Amino acid sequence: MTDLLQIKGQVFNIERHALHDGPGIRTLVFLSGCPLNCLWCANPEGHRIKNLFIWKNQCTNCGRCIEACPNGAVAIENSLCTTDRSLCNICGSCIDTCPMGARKISGKEMTVGEVLEIVRRDSVFYKHSGGGITLSGGEPFCQPEFVHALLKQAKAEGINTAIETCGAVPWKDMEQSIEYLDNILFDVKHIDSEKHKKFTGMDNSVILENFQKAGETGAKIIARVPIIPTFNDTLEEAESIAGFIAKVPGVVRIDILPFHKLAEPKHSAMDTTFKMSDCEPLKADLIDNLAAEFKKVFKETYIEV
Questions:
Q1: How many domains does the chain have?
Q2: What is the C-alpha separation between 98 and 140, in angstroms, rounded?
């Protein structure tokens, strides 16, 4: 029999003491990989197994990383330290030489046992708050074997479990793990398939089908609706999303997630482009009006702050 604790996965962050990703105080485990390419994605680093972050506001252009790089990817140009990403293989040689901590790698391979060793550190908080472990991403179900092993072992240890999913994965990869989940935090972004594809790179047919199937298993679902400017910020769109969610069994609440620009500095540090940089967060009164549309059909609706 496979030793669950030795199964490996790609993890790009572990965040402790989280409060908005399931009940109680939780440990968030972010897994690499995602089938979508949402323009507003808060965790763009989740699309790759490894990423090199360069926090330019912390760099003093001392040049130590130039000497450390074995591939000649780093140079001084116009008195500024620059990195040729096409030459960089994210080996990490430059990380330890930086006295200001301006360089960081996100993403590494971990075993189920290594992840749970970190998760167990907060067991006292889980006990008193009803919290536990939440798998996030990226899209966790892009690593179905690792997710299944991690959830199964966590449940065996009495840890409350949850997962955040976009749902754009084969149903079999979700189905095998549902019995080990206390909550599924499931995104429903739009009902119109073409508009969904325009903003996320993929239509929503599999997502809506999986949402329905998950509800029919008896799983407890927290439906999450990101409210994004020009994408789904009208009353008509809110009404259509709310109407779909209300018909699915197993939904215990709806969380409204207002658009933010927290990903913008990450893009800058990865030398990529945040494609919604020109959009501003929506006004609070508009968010309240949209939330009211959801409350018409589902009383347990909340705005995440």
A1: 2
A2: 32
Average pLDDT, rounded, for the chain: 96
User: What is the spatial distance between Cα 2 and Cα 273, in angstroms, rounded to a whole number?
Assistant: 42
Tokens coding 193: 């398939």
Q: Within this chain, do residues 165 and 288 fall inside the same structural domain, yes or no?
A: yes
For the sheet with 132-137, list strands across it.
Answer: 108-111, 8-18, 26-31, 132-137, 160-165, 183-187, 221-227, 251-258, 301-303
The pLDDT tens digits of the residues spanning 56-114 come to 999 999 999 999 999 999 999 988 999 999 999 999 999 989 999 999 999 999 999 99
Same domain as 279, residue 190: yes
Give the domain CATH number at 10: 3.20.20.70
| Spatial separation of the C-alpha atoms in residues 72 and 68, rounded to whole Å | 9
The dihedral through the CA atoms of 7, 116, 13, 39 has a sign that is: positive
Same domain, 130 and 216: yes
Asked if 25 and 92 sit in the same domain, the reply is no
CATH number at 99 reads: 3.30.70.20
Domain with 234 in it: 4-48+107-303
- Mean pLDDT of the 6-30 span: 95
Q: For residues 90 and 141, state if they share a domain.
A: no
Q: What is the pLDDT of residue 2?
A: 67
Cα distance between residue 61 and residue 175, in whole Å: 51
Give yes or no for a contact between 289 and 70, defined as CB atoms under 8 angstroms apart: no
What is the four-CA torsion angle of 40, 45, 49, 50, rounded to 10 degrees?
160
139-196 pLDDT per residue, tens: 999 999 999 999 999 999 999 999 999 999 999 999 999 999 999 999 999 999 999 9
- Lookup: tokens for 224: 């999450």
Residue whose C-alpha is closest to residue 177's, from 158, 156, 149, 154: 149
